[in-house]
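sry for the spam today, last one i promise. struct tokens for design, 144 residues
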């Protein structure tokens, strides 16, 4: 059976989901790797679902999926993978600040969710990324 490939990682991620109940909440692309965060819930009942995608011969295909954030192998080196952190943001949140391995990063909140991705990284053994806070109406609020 041939493998289905697509023009975009978003199209690859949404394959098999009913269009009525599936939309792209956020996505990131880095070279031949992509991560797409879908909302597969019905109206008023969001359900987030993450999909790893990769590019082969200029076309995108799904390479794994999960209903939770975490780490997954990407490519032939089993020591390296894609690390993702995502979730629903508080109402009116504009940005999220996350800390990982001594570095803080900030990402935009889109469609009420946040997504942060670390590419070609080792699986954390002890310290996982953590949300430090959200910017709401221009003010940073520390996460609980």
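last one done:
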């Amino acid at each position: 059976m041939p493998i289905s490939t697509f023009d975009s990682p978003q199209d690859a991620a949404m394959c098999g989901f009913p269009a009525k109940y599936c939309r792209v909440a956020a996505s990131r692309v880095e070279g031949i790797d992509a991560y797409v965060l879908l909302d597969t819930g019905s109206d008023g009942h969001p359900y987030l679902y993450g999909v790893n995608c990769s590019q082969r011969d200029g076309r995108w295909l799904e390479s794994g999926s999960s209903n939770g954030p975490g780490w997954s192998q990407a490519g032939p080196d089993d020591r390296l993978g894609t690390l993702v952190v995502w979730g629903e943001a508080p109402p009116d949140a504009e940005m999220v600040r996350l800390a990982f391995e001594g570095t803080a990063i900030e990402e935009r909140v889109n469609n009420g969710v946040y997504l942060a991705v670390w590419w070609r990284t080792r699986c954390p053994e002890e310290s996982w990324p953590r949300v430090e806070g959200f910017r709401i109406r221009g003010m940073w609020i520390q996460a609980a």
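The two ends are 48 Å apart (CA to CA). ok im logging off now
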